[in-house]
Amino acid sequence: xxxxxxxxxxxxxxxxSSEIIPNGALVMEGEKIQIVAPFAEIPHSAYDTVLDFTGxxxxxxxxxxxxxxxxxPSLENYLERMKDTIPELTIRATIxxxxxxxxxxxxxxxxxxxxxxxxxxxxxxxxxxIPGPRSIVAGKGxxxxxxxxxxxxxxxxxxxxxxxxxxxxxxxADFTKIYITGTLRRNGDLxxxxxxxxxxxxxxTSHEAGVKVASHxxxxxxxxxxxxxxxxxxxxxxxxxxHQIENLGKSKTQPVLTPSPILNDKIVNxxxxxxxxxxxxxxxxxxxxxxxxIEAKIPFALGTDGMHGELFKEAEYSVELGAxxxxxxxxxxxxxxxxxxxxxxxxxxxxxKDADIIAVEGNPVENIQSLRKVKLVIKxxxxxxxxxxxxxxxxxxxxS
Length: 400
Ligand SMILES: [Zn+2]
Fold this sequence. Notes:
- The chain is of the alpha/beta class.
- It is built from 12 helices and 19 strands.
């Protein structure tokens, strides 16, 4: 018989609405959530074991919507370190995935790694060989032959791009990643490194294969083209104009914001030397652009861009830039699930969905810094953190 576990907290937030259930609880059975209700309303006959997280909020496992398994910005000159050997990168990725998981990230979306190591990592987690969040992965990111993209591979012309997408999908990638622009404006225009035809070919080929296209794209003409052509997810959007925000709001394109690579000194100071000052110079302007996008009330997801274990920071930055705590939390849960095409599986606590659950100390709807204090991590019904034993109470029926 499958054990039925009730997890109770001082609050439960189900992942999308503004409602918090005081003394909320949920029952999970195997991999799935069965009941979500105030603890007092759940009959004793509905569960065998209690995990008591009084003082905490029970909420959905978080989703890092933009990361790279093998990236580690805590390393000096970390973008250059993406050229390390594949065995080194793979070992690093396994360490990063564990860090993510223990910080409450139960799903992540990776936007390109070297040599399909992200696909191997995804499968290793799926087969319980290593601990980590479930992931959906882009395989090899595609950049222009002369364009930006530290983690991407160069391609020229639409034929090469179509071929590369087919190879990626053949290898097991879940979606397509392209690099349309660079990151900094440097007082000039923001050129599109990919041509209109190349972007169109990437989107058409991917959509015909039933997968989404994500693009590193911060603004300029490339962003106009991407919106016109039906790009699925707009990553970073650092220099998006007011007019583009308006068009984004009318489109089906979902923004995935990554404040840390601009706002976190720890990351900026680890860029290649010639890029550091530029990031500081544009910090203010980029902050004001993200603020405008958030003010437009366009639903957004959030990603760390490799800052493993620190997704809470993205939530804090987005609150500093004008998001409500609830908007920031939705970015990490239900909006992330939408970006990953997983709304039916994860991102909210609803009976029938996977039991991806965390408990955080306090109430994050009131204090976003609660997300720093993750006390319990459950992924697909399995307890992943080692903090839960002191909270376990067996009812004595199943175990006598
Ligand atoms: Zn990235």
